[in-house]
Specification:
By secondary structure, this protein is an alpha/beta fold. It is 37% helix and 18% strand. It has two domains: 222 residues, Periplasmic binding protein-like II (D-Maltodextrin-Binding Protein, domain 2), CATH 3.40.190; 179 residues, D-Maltodextrin-Binding Protein, domain 2 (3-Layer(aba) Sandwich), CATH 3.40.190.10. A six-stranded mixed sheet has the order 2-5-4-6-20-9. Strands 14-11-15-10-16 form a five-stranded mixed sheet, sandwiched between helices.
């Protein structure tokens, strides 16, 4: 596949305003260093213009080897299970880009959660390039730990990735990272000898009841529960200030939409086939389960030749149907703000390479991470992964999980536990609306 040599689209003024970039980071016995080889190759690379400048997009050309990008060290933090893979990809990048021969690139095994916490604690001492989960984006931006991605690089993020992943890399209209996966979310695993129509929750539950099988979904979880509320058209998000404090809650659960969602959850709980849960490792007698790609191996082993996957079904309440939605999760690569324009250019080129279609596909084949790149998603090997295909359909119906107060998760669990206890089985619409208003008011109180 042809690749593009994208122009550096960050102005010199932006570079000067960035925080100091010292590279480094915590040392690790698992770290590895790679230096550039001397052979030239055609690849995606930063352009040859003066650092900090801009140019039009160029097609299938390497950055000229006679441009002096200077020397330096670049530290990359990645999850432990992809460190070796990243070492190999960085070596490939440097071999194909001898114009960056003056740079030594070191990878260190720092997982997404630790990377975000470490960067927020000490931006200057953190990695130059690092992986993180999308729900950490607001905290990292507030801490000044992410460089905005603009111009052709931002266009690359939008055009090369699915809409959910591209949106997860943004705050407002500003792009702050390069997506690398679209594989954290939930969808339906089912036994196709039991479930005849995976598009309807009512039919799935009826089939499980008829076969004496169980339908698993974790309705007392703040992660899974929004599948109903968001699907019905409700909103529940939080805004934060520059310090990461919650400033407002955007919620409309105490509405007819919220009432529809809550009644759908109650109706599901009333079925004798329903079991509250989301893990195949602890499930028995399963006809269908709402779960994630991390359990795809267990699902294939359990269902055998009847193994099947699908996006979440529709739910019907009082004659009105709606598509279940929920949260989606994505892995991103960010760059610490840089004051050295040459180093910034190299960091952008590396991050773009690590998020490219070819690298994402290779990463999937190496460790099973589901690509966010639309070209990689259409490859035969990825399309043959029925779990990832179902998740891709579902992620188009979700919102990226942002920042939520810890108390929200407990509150959602309490709501689900009360449903499971049967306390709302005979409640009137007015009584349920009171429940939703209390829930909404409590969520808002967390941002006051």
């Amino acid at each position: 596949m042809k690749r593009k040599a994208l122009a550096l689209a960050v102005s010199a003024a932006m570079v000067v305003s960035m925080l100091t970039a010292c590279g480094g980071g915590n040392s690790s016995s698992g770290s590895a260093e790679t230096t550039a080889a001397t052979t030239a190759a055609t690849t995606t690379a930063a352009p040859a213009e003066n650092a900090g400048g801009s140019s039009d997009t160029e097609e299938t050309t390497a950055a000229p080897a006679d441009v002096d990008y200077g020397t330096g060290e670049i530290t990359i933090w990645v999850a432990d299970n992809v460190q070796s893979f990243t070492d190999e990809q960085v070596a490939k990048f440097l071999e194909e880009n001898p114009q960056f021969a003056g740079y030594t690139v070191r990878t260190e095994p720092v997982g997404e959660g630790d990377a975000a916490n470490n960067m927020i604690t000490d931006v200057e001492g953190g990695a130059d390039i690092y992986g993180f989960a999308q729900d950490q984006l607001a905290r990292l931006v507030s801490a000044g730990a992410l460089m905005p991605i603009s111009g052709d690089y931002a266009a690359f993020v939008d055009s090369e990735n699915d809409a959910g992943a591209a949106g997860a890399a943004k705050m407002g209209d500003t792009t702050f990272a390069f997506p690398v996966t679209s594989d954290n979310g939930y969808f339906l695993y089912y036994d196709k000898s039991v479930v005849t129509d995976p598009t309807s929750l009512d039919k799935i539950v009826a089939d499980c009841e008829a076969a004496g099988k169980s339908f698993y979904m974790e309705i007392n979880s703040g992660w899974y529960q929004p599948a109903f509320f968001f699907g019905a058209g409700c909103t529940l998000t939080y805004d934060t200030d520059d310090m990461g404090n919650f400033t407002s809650c955007n919620i409309d659960y105490a509405t007819d939409k919220g009432l529809t969602a809550l009644k759908a959850i109650i109706n599901l709980h009333k079925s004798p086939a329903f079991v509250n849960g989301s893990s195949l490792s602890s499930a028995t007698n399963v006809g269908a389960i709402v779960d994630g790609t991390w359990d795809s191996g267990a699902a294939q082993e359990l269902f055998g030749e009847n193994y099947a996957c699908a996006k979440l079904p529709t739910a019907t309440v009082d004659g009105t149907s709606f598509q279940l939605g929920g949260f989606g999760g994505f892995k991103l690569i960010g760059i610490k703000p840089q004051t050295d324009a040459n180093k910034m250019q190299v960091c952008l080129a590396i991050a773009q390479f690590l998020s490219s279609a070819d690298t994402q596909l290779a990463r999937y084949e190496a460790v099973g991470w589901g690509p966010s790149n639309v070209t990689a998603q259409q490859s035969d090997v990825v399309k043959a992964d029925v779990a990832l295909s179902a998740l891709a359909e579902q992620l188009a119906l979700t919102i990226p999980q942002g920042q939520y107060p810890n108390d929200y998760w407990s509150l959602a669990t309490s709501l689900g536990d009360t449903v499971i206890a049967g306390e709302y089985d005979n409640a009137t619409d007015d009584e349920l609306m009171t429940v939703l208003q209390d829930f909404e008011n409590t969520c808002k109180s967390y941002a006051q």
